Amino acid sequence: MNDLFQFDRDRMSVAEYQVLVKKMPQILLRKKLCGVHMRLAEMAREQLYDVFADYIKVEKGELLELLDSASGDKIHPFIEDTIVTGEDVNAALRLIAIHALAANGLKPAILHQYRRMIMQSYGVEALNKLLKLQKMGMIRERGGSGKMIADYAPVMFPHMKKQYNLLTENVSESNTSDSAYAYSGYASLIVRILEEGDRVRWAGWHKTSDSAVGGITSSSVSYSADLDI
Length: 229
What we know:
CATH architecture of the largest domain: Alpha Horseshoe
Oligomer: single chain
Helix content: 55-70%
CATH topology of the largest domain: Serine Threonine Protein Phosphatase 5, Tetratricopeptide repeat
Order of helices and strands: HHHHHHHH
Low-confidence stretches: 210-214
């Protein structure tokens, strides 16, 4: 925009004035679009620093703590705040699912509290989502039985966390040799399994698959590209 307004009226010839007049509608349009762009940038910045930054803090701090030492005997404070303040319902349900996974299931009383809070903050439709996640086995009740129990065995995350070293201590984001650097200390299970297969040169593996149940993240794909598979 600055280049478009760089002209000296006192030294311009008639021909140059004619060219400037023809360009004026385009200049005014660009000026208007710049104003719109700046307004959108301000709105995006507000979301980035006021909302997104909080989620980043949780992912790098409290969420790793939740994965590392979750207890199914009490509600997690951040999850409670997320629900009570009416944040995105899908984000709240994901956090509850992570809590249940990391704690190897939630006590019936804790799961009941989560259900009640979801119902009060988001309504019946959100509660229905939570019940479906429970039926699928994504949110598991410790010692539960009946129709809400999935047909397959639960994922034993506390055991797998230690077996595959999913939470790495003293990880450095400048050291890209360990995939955990991408998530500030957390390495996804699919990447750890691929690393194990690469170490044994796929001995005992019937085949190498390029997909995974539940999908695979772009970061997992990028890290797997460095492996000889």
